[in-house]
Write the structure tokens for this entry.
Amino acid sequence: METNKENLFKIRHSAEHVFMHAMRDLGLQFLMAMGPATDDGFYFDFELLDGNISESDFPKIEAKMNEIIKQNIPIVGEEIDEKTARELFFTNPYKQEWLDEIKNKGEAITVYWTGKPHEMSSFVDLCKGPHVNSTGEIGVIKLLSTAGAYWRGNEKNKMLTRIYGTAFPTQAELDTYLEELEKRKQNDHRILGQKLDLFTFSDLVGKGLVMYTPNGTIIKNELNKALVKISRKYGVQEVNIPHMAKIDLYKISGHADKFSEELFKVTSHFDEEFVLKPVNCPHHTQIYASRPRSYKDLPIRYIESTQQHRDEKPGAMSGLNRTRSFEIDDGHTFCTPEQIKQEAINTIKIIEEFYTALGMWGNQWISLSFRDPSTPEKYIGDNNDWNTAESLLREINDELSLNAKIMEGEAALYGPKIDFMLKDALGNDRQLGTVQLDFAMPKRFNLVYIGEDGTEKTPVMLHRAILGSYGRFIANLLESTAGAFPVWLAPVQVVIIPISEKTHDYAKEVATTLFDLEIRYEIDNKDETMGNKIRKAQELKIPYMIILGEKESTAQNISVRNREGTQQFGISLSSFTDHIKNVIISKSQNL
Amino acid sequence: METNKENLFKIRHSAEHVFMHAMRDLGLQFLMAMGPATDDGFYFDFELLDGNISESDFPKIEAKMNEIIKQNIPIVGEEIDEKTARELFFTNPYKQEWLDEIKNKGEAITVYWTGKPHEMSSFVDLCKGPHVNSTGEIGVIKLLSTAGAYWRGNEKNKMLTRIYGTAFPTQAELDTYLEELEKRKQNDHRILGQKLDLFTFSDLVGKGLVMYTPNGTIIKNELNKALVKISRKYGVQEVNIPHMAKIDLYKISGHADKFSEELFKVTSHFDEEFVLKPVNCPHHTQIYASRPRSYKDLPIRYIESTQQHRDEKPGAMSGLNRTRSFEIDDGHTFCTPEQIKQEAINTIKIIEEFYTALGMWGNQWISLSFRDPSTPEKYIGDNNDWNTAESLLREINDELSLNAKIMEGEAALYGPKIDFMLKDALGNDRQLGTVQLDFAMPKRFNLVYIGEDGTEKTPVMLHRAILGSYGRFIANLLESTAGAFPVWLAPVQVVIIPISEKTHDYAKEVATTLFDLEIRYEIDNKDETMGNKIRKAQELKIPYMIILGEKESTAQNISVRNREGTQQFGISLSSFTDHIKNVIISKSQNL
């Protein structure tokens, strides 16, 4: 039996054809380029030859699509020869380019007809299928938005028009999806980030170069502090490296060869060639190599939250999720082969403790990310080492009952890894923690230690990140909490609201107590009603509001309201500060 | 009356001539290039035409120099015309180049003769003086070391030989200086940094790109924490920016124009031109500009410890003092004109509190660093603003009785500043804290706030650094303490020394207590004598040693020895931890 997912895919793929079909029947002049069904619906890219198209045109196109659906026209696949294909699409350079490619690959050419094959009134496109049998099976459709997109995603090519849409078997399913979409839009981290004043971008600084404002910096710093504190229990030490290095460093590591497209070159007025660091591992090998090491010194575990740089395409960047500079809690352990397993397990323990403190443990799925045996050119290191490393990860998976899925082709450049994945609010998989085994890089950098037998040996490297990219992590946290951070992470933990000017002095006294206890607060002295002030604090998801009227001032106590609406009147300041300190220190999810 | 300093300068300047004179009389073949008297002695650069010269040749040259000194030959200045000068130095292209330059400037040509003018046996050099009257006044001389140096400091020119030497009126003064020099060599931060394992460099990473090891990172982080904690009292907030930006940002700020030689260019595969950030101010203006601001929001105070990059000449780099990437605690306040004075005063208070915590307050001298009115092309901004800013700094100087010296030509690109200077262990002035007024940059970036009257106004920027460059600061701290850091900064605060294997378990128990109190410790379990372990801890300047024998284990107490040699036997662990926690929290200079 067909799964629901396969059926949805067919429905959307066919809806996409019906969309083009409707555009044609409406007399629009355009060249079809390409478009797939996606997890959420479909999109199609085309070159509009005349006029404009905007969301206001959607109802008209949808009406025409529904007409075609109602007619229940058969959708039929056909394999054709190159000559026929070239003729069918003779006015369309995009399709001609597709045909070149199909020919180069030596694949068969298939088209799908909506209507009788080879009739002028039928719609036809180059397509591998699959589709539903006839348009009547499509259900309900909806066009969603329009955007620009480069032909084949390359900025050097022409900018095309892209229209997004979706289709579901029933109206009820579509409505649920549209509601969800609306919620997602409101929780988009870019919008929330602006509203809560967490980060910003500037055209003068450049695309994908994020700047964290004071509020966002607090969140970043608190995450880092939590991470360092947990890691310290496992003997991890912080180090600090520069942001550039001679390209020679990456020639040895292999990055210059495998990722040259992603490297930013740095030019000195003098004679050396530099790049911005895309990863930290090569620098960390140089700290390891700075002194003689003995087996007694191992494991040596470095951690560092520092920015990395990758030359992303300007069009590929998106909020905090894809940026040109991004901070990662990048760590490297150097150990003996015998120590690998325990070190990997310890890192998994750190991951568990950290995500538990964020209330996120239990939602993850785990991947054993192995080589793709069919593309050995993508990796460095020798085959035996890869086999050993992959077996070790399998053992750890069994011992800890991780129930990981094996994902071929997801390994790192230098070795296999265990990835902790989380579905974000938009349903996408996000890689969070990762533990990666590497037998290759220590050899390339000639790293050694003196073994118990007095001879030189090569250490093994474990690459690991607990939190991953701070930007991505914060984006995900924002979208999943809608900005209602746990108290320990909230940039402003308390807002003090004096009801009138008469209690401004008392507000300052209360503030001093909070300051001394290192509780993050703001005083809202603005000339507004208390109702407005509470509403504003609520919108900013500030965990607690301390409300100070003359009654509180006289009694030298406070009234507290939390962001969930719970209120307490006339309690002592110290009972509140005891409570909040406890919530902060225990990293509680509750208020 | 002549000061001692002026006299020393003459002695050394004359010694430098006698040095060349002696080289000539010994029959060495060379071309004189140039050489000055310095604060420490003198040096001379020359091109050796034949053979080698090394420190083993020094005694022979010194003997010849002493002969010339003993002969008490007169040293006589003379102004000569160009033709005579060209002839006098006709075989020497370096002197011809000097003569070109003197001619271009339209200055008079002077030479100094050792011996009768225009006699073949006399020594002559192009020189502006002043000198002692005759070689007999020189006192005692000493040649110190040899090095390579590019002609006029430019790598594109020929590499010359440089010889360093010194001279003093008496042997006793020379001996004191040589002793001091030996001590300085031992306290050189590059040597101490290696010994205490604080930082490292790697040829693969590149010159001047420092990597901090775990110990050095602890010091950096502790300094930053202390700084942020003090700053927080004055409403300063941390922000976080990327390490690159479009060059457009620096075209507006003026850096692209004034410092283009120091900028590292970053090349993307796409179309924009980037540079590595040489300063933070332009980025911080963009955070300010990310939302509308009202006078009620001001002052806004950003601080950030982050790396900056400058394209230093490979030959100019030196340990942590001059590097291509360096971290600075760079901060910027945006305020109204009325708030400038209080904000500047608050920053000076932060500086005072910070340096007091390091036991360094009281040794500084203060500079009011103003424009050089003769080189207006070096600055941006308009004249009235400069005058206002300089008057304001004078007022602050008077009000706080800073007794600052006015240093013309030491201003920043955008405005005058108050600099806090410290003489380092080598007698050089090092800039530590700085407060800088800037009316220019906010205008260039069109920054605004809504004033109390509802109209748009331009804020003023204060640039400030408390600690300055972390690298330079740590170098200075290392050289002045010889590595004996105050306890709160010491990378390892306690070493636990079990006397034999029998007390290894007890050592672990003690360690757990220290760990829980966040005291930084190491256990020295190595198979060595207790004497050796104590000596090693002493050499590494570890503040406290906890020594655990069977006696201590049985009594469940500890013996403690501090790095100054004071010992306490059989005290309770908790009395020690109370003491050390107190020393750490109060940032005491004592043990």
